[in-house]
Every structure is written in structure tokens, then in C-alpha cells.
Amino acid sequence: MNLLSYGLLGLLAREESSGYDLMLRIQPFWQAKHSQIYPLLARMEGKELLASRWIQQSDKPDKKMYTITDKGIHMLQQWSQEALAAPVTRDELSLRLFCLWLTDKSSANRMLEERKRHFIQKIQHLEDILNNIPAENLHFGSKNFGDYILVQKGLLNAKAGLEWCQMVLHMLLAGDVSVDTNPFALKPQS
Question: Where is the Transcription regulator PadR N-terminal domain (predicted)?
């Protein structure tokens, strides 16, 4: 079992889904493609961690729906109690900024403005999700509690990313990095 397998089981623990729906629902947590998901679903079905049924559709091809089994729930519960691995960071912008000295200021501004727009859209999307989480279900043990804390984490990360983009854009506009252009620089105490 790999991390994507556990992620798929976690989604199926919440509701029955097709492979395509699972691919869409896993994206906020893990970038996965059809070519990864469908073989994992077949293997997990073979291990009896999930079951499937076919739904006939008149206007589209028949759809295979998956549900988690008791054995799959048990496997997911065991995994949730294991020690966490260190987080992995993969960010193309970070790699490009590492090579920033090789580009022009216009390209640097464009990259940061694109990322800034991404964070603004993400903040709006996450705030919309947050507004639709029922407050009465925000207690440990409810599915909504997990949703709430993950949306809050996403919001904090997106807001920090937006603030960072604004700081770097301000530095590019100023043309240098000084205490006055870096809002995160330590200020001398008087």
C-alpha cells in the first residue's frame, strides 16, 4: 500500500465513488492521474479492501462505483495510527526562483503575479468551502471537523503565500533587498 492507496481508501470511507470522481477529489491532497488510480483500485479490490458495482447509464458508458469494505476501514484505521513521514515539497516556482538571476525582471514579475492570482483564487475558494461547513458538526470525530481544520490550514498557507508574493514583488519594484523593503526583516529594537 502506498500513500495514494490510503488516500483513496479515506475518500471511499466517506462515500461511494467512481474512479474518475476519486481522481478529482484526491487532487487537493495529492496530484494523481487516471493511470495511477485505476490500477490501485483494482489491486485494492483484489485484496478485498474495497468492493465495486456497475451502474448502467443510458447516455454514457457504464460506471464502476467503489465502496470501502470493513477490511479496508481496518487498514485505514491502522495507517492513521502510524508515524508520519516528513513532508515533501515540490514547487516549480521555487525552482525557477532559485535560477532567478538568469531571467529578466519582467519575467520574474510575471511569475510572481501569476502565483499571486493563484493564491487569491485559492483563498476565495477555501473561504467558500469554510462558509458551507456546518458549525454544529465541528467536533473531534466528525468528518466536518477534519474538513474544517484542513481548510483552515489551506487558508493559512495561501494567505502566507500571497503575503510572500507581495513582499517579493515589492522588492523587485524597489530594485534591492533592504530592511525597508523586506517586511519580514528583523527590526532593531530601540
Answer: 8-77
68 burial class (0-12, 13-18, 19+ CB within 10 angstroms)?
buried
Q: 165 near 184, Cβ under 8 Å?
A: no
> Cell digits for 25?
477529489
What's the CA gap between 172 and 67, in Å, rounded?
51
**Grid cell listed for 29:** 491532497
- For CA atoms 126, 130, 131, 133, the dihedral sign is positive
Give the global pTM.
Answer: 0.73
Which DSSP category does 187 fall into? P
Cell 513521514 appears where? 85
Residue 189 has a pLDDT of 53
Q: Report the amino acid identity of residue 14.
A: R
Provide DSSP, 15-52.
Answer: --EEHHHHHHHHTTT----HHHHHHHHHHHHHTTSEEE
